[in-house]
Write the structure tokens for this entry.
Amino acid sequence: MTALKFTVLGTRGSVPVEGKNFSRYGGATSCYKVSAGKEEIYLDAGSGIVSALPARDTNITILLTHMHLDHLVGLPFFIALTEKDRPIDIYSNKRSGLMPKEAIDRLISNPFWPCKIENYPAKVSFHLLPEKFFIGDVEIDTLEGSHPEGSTIYKLTRQGKSLVYATDFEHNPAACESLAAFSKGCDLLLYDAQYTAEEYERYRGYGHSIPQEGIKVADAAGVKKLVFVHHAPLRNDEELAKLESTFGVSFAKVGDEFLL
Ligand SMILES: [Zn+2]
Ligand SMILES: [Zn+2]
């Protein structure tokens, strides 16, 4: 029996892209769906959430890593927001001193958008992220990662299976050690590998990592499967396929499903 079903809805970093050179890995920004019994848990609300079609009888939760645009830009278009009185729970840490609702209100309000989130038919509730809690029978653990203004790393565990979502994470010895301890023995680790090692020299401090560091963390933690996420916006299908064969690790593709 499947404890956690993980689906990639969008895995592009920074900004959505489109065109024939991006069709295989996909151009939509960060959004992943985890299905677990009656629970439908979305990790981030980038433009990938626009293609989500939640089932009628599930509980919808959105876990936000942070408030950068690429992780939020799909939220105003999430179809479940248009369902009358549909409960939607959104969790986030405070960012730049703002509570989750205050931060969302800055984006979803005039002049950027013609209405606020409470004007949608759904019933949206915002929650400040506890360090550890349950959504149904899914245990959620959190760890702050290294990223400008922070980014939450999530671990979801159910029936002895677990996955860790570590996007918008920049490696440094202390952060990698914490992430390895947090990911110890997990079944699936999603790791930010936006840059190549050569590019990284130019983008140090931007808050993203490289494949080599992800492999080190996965080895140290003994994770069963490592998948790279948050692909650079202009990295085309051919280049991503080449990186996959160089490192022997998958780069997430829109539509990928992992059954744990
Ligand atoms: Zn991002
Ligand atoms: Zn970010």
About this structure: The two ends are 9 Å apart (CA to CA).
